[in-house]
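In keeping with the milestone schedule agreed at the kick-off meeting, the structural modelling team has produced records for the first pair of proteins. Each record is given below as a sequence line and a structure-token line. The laboratory manager (R.T.) confirmed that both were archived under the project's standard naming scheme.
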Amino acid sequence: MINKVYEKIKDYIKENYKALIIIALAIALVTVKLPYYISAPGGIINTKEKVDISSNLKMEGSLNMAYVSEIQGTIPLLIFGLLNPNWDIEKEEEVTVGSETIEDEMYRNKMLLEEANDLATLVAYDNSDIKYKTENNKVYVTYVDDLAQTNLKVGDQIIKVDGKEITEKADLYKFIENKKPNDKVTFTIIRDNKEEQKKATLIDVNGEPKVGLIITETLDIKSDHNVDLKFKGTESGSSGGLMLALTIYSYLNNEDLTHGKKIVGTGTIDREGNVGEISGIKYKLMGAVKEKADVFLVPQGENYIEARNLKNEKGYDIDIIPVETFKEALKYLKNL
């Protein structure tokens, strides 16, 4: 019986091998990923979907974060990208930094999202006169520069440097600032659930001592108004910090900042509430316009200039508002 089935399959392949080859090539053409990435206009995410907090607030409008569509290239997509002026194609090495792998870059962006969520929540609390406390502070290595002289790795949790306890990024930065290039330091880290000692020789970056790392900090925030944030596993990055902080503030204070308008924005947020520039501003503006947003909050500086120029070039009907701080964005929305 088995031999008969085998013979039938073999005969079928012999009779139809050309068609089978064509089908296999067509599947490969559509599905095989190439070492190229495409950046394209994205969309917007209503931030109320990301914030879980006890509040009776019902917004007349909406607060939204903008995002960029990033797609790994296949042959059909790359061909379409070459013909589409709104799409940009980048080589894989242009997407990553130095010898960083795609996996390392994805991990870094995941950690940046977690850090941004924590910072947005802190800034919202600080501007709301609500008591809170932080605990379980942790500091992680999320990037190691090719010039760094160290055996630290991405994912290491730093707990001490030269015996000094490290619970915040600022602790590490202050410690390194008092050193000199070529000084040697010892890190106590946790790797694979084990405590280990690692070394680094500080490098000279524009006359300043540096380890050559990107450090990401996470923490837990405890309050009577606890905020839970819900993000998908596919979401990453820190550019939603400003809009998330504004949304959390709105719910903590039962204050509708939208005044019935669709507000879209982008920008990182730091512990002091400063708004930082981001990449892909043109794609985010295109996405906001596509979704018929009324206002686009954008970091002051190059981001604002690029967005303003694109608006003028395309004739977009949207108010582009440059902001440098959370307080500035909050003041604008309160007076909208």
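The second protein of the pair:
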Amino acid sequence: MDYNYHHMKIPFHRRIMPWVFALIFLFMAPAVVFYTAGYRWNQNKGVIERNGTIMFDTLPRGADIFLNGQKLDQKTPFTMQNVAPGTYEIKYVLKGFHEWAKTLPVDPERVTFATEVNLWPDAQPELAMPGDFPSLIADPQGSYVLLAGAPKNRSTDYMLVDSATAQTKNRVTANSEFVPQYADWDKAGDVALLYGTASSVSQTCYLQTKALTPNRMPDGIYHWDGSDLVGFADRQKITVQNDGAVEHTPQPSGIHDVLAGFSLRYVTGTADLVLTLNKKTDQGFVLPPGQWQFRAQPDSTLLLQSGKDWMWIDLATDPLTVNRLQADWLWPMVVKRQTRYLALNGNEVYVWDSGHEPELIYRQSDKLVSAAWYADGKDVMVATKNAVIMFNLDARNGRYKTTLATFDEIAAATVANENVFVSATKNGQTGFWRLPLAISNAILPSLPSFGGF
């Protein structure tokens, strides 16, 4: 059988299609690779750039996440990748807690952290104890709070209150009108040097928490030398041992103060002071005018005080790095083995790191009542005359503040064991109030009253 083969011409569209697919592949393959690598077209900038990442997390977890007003399907913790560079408003919402919101930038190939955010319970203060308490001071570990009542009939009631239960551990009525304002504690929190007033006159008192009776000390500035309290006053070196025994020894000639191998010495014939290492008395650092005395030796630094003037010297630098601050009081906090201070100066609150200028956290026209660290060192409590406020120290686009509670009038406030304790009047009731900061405390029942002064 004969077959006739006829040459048939392939249509043009069929001949061109492989080339079209090849060209599409050549163009699309890099685009797919770039897309999976996080590159996107930024319409606002008119350029192709790599995207960023946002990490969301809160304490407690499980908060709703809002991004530029849109609620995400996920809750904290969550990581969102391939986010176009720009600025985003991030808001966390959790039932029973105050909201948190901040606008943060997202940069190409970078991670934006909206993490370690403490959400504070939206709870009403609980009256733990009625009474007038002009002073509240927490120990360094936050285990208890020292309360001083308003002096009556030349006597003052002092109470030690458990910070977890708000129950009284110890109570003493002392023949004194001394009301402490600030405390310098030993490391164990068993002994405190209290600075305060009695009949509007400044006084310094030594207090052991077991005895709870303040003993007046000679006026001066003291520091801890191990478990002993050491200071210089009236040309005498005063040493208070851990058993409460007080020793007075003559002050060495030309010596103003001594701490851990360092001395403050008078420049011959003047009132000027020079900081020297005891082994190298021929070399020293001349201090600015003032009656400087040692306060502490945090890390490889020295902290000195002269009235309301504080000086922090970094000994690890050459020449020495010196920073100064005017403050009523400083509260230390150790973060990653580095000491930093929270400072209250009238109507201002600062955070102070070694080797850096003090950083202003908050300022208002009226005098502030008190300030305190929160346990993680990332937030601070500030008490005004009428409100308790928590400030997050993340400075990106401003520090976020949360007003936890308002009062008619606040006399004192402190933070201990996941609570803010406030001496205040609210709705006509004056007393010792507790405001929970953690979810475990926020769901506890109201505390009973224990009777007032």
